[in-house]
Design brief:
The protein is of the alpha+beta class. It has helices spanning 9-21, 25-41, and strands at 4-7, 48-49, 54-59, 62-69, 74-82. It has one domain (4-82): YaeB-like fold, CATH 3.30.2310. The protein is 36% helix and 35% strand.
Length: 84
């Protein structure tokens, strides 16, 4: 099954800010791309559960918080931050 991944505008804007400020831009890009790919294939596999439908995922140097809607096969990225 392929999941649709949507980013809140605020999360997408913050990712852009993190990338602009990063001394390791290739690592930030690679982490964001790996997260998108993982979420599209199986949002449960490489993530940890939180309350309700909320989950987190870490791919250094980034972390994200997201919600999963099984009914719609939709993953919504709520927030992104620099981890580690």
């Amino acid at each position: 099954m392929i999941w649709t991944v949507a980013w809140f505008d605020s999360a997408q804007n913050h990712l852009a800010e993190l990338w602009m400020e990063a001394p390791d831009r290739p690592a930030v890009s690679a982490a964001a791309n790996a997260m998108d790919q993982s979420l599209r294939s199986d949002p449960y596999q490489n993530s940890e559960s939180r309350s309700g439908k909320n989950r987190v995922m870490f791919v250094p140097p980034l972390g994200i918080s997201f919600d999963v809607s099984d009914e719609d096969c939709l993953v919504t990225v709520l927030a992104v931050w620099r981890s580690g």
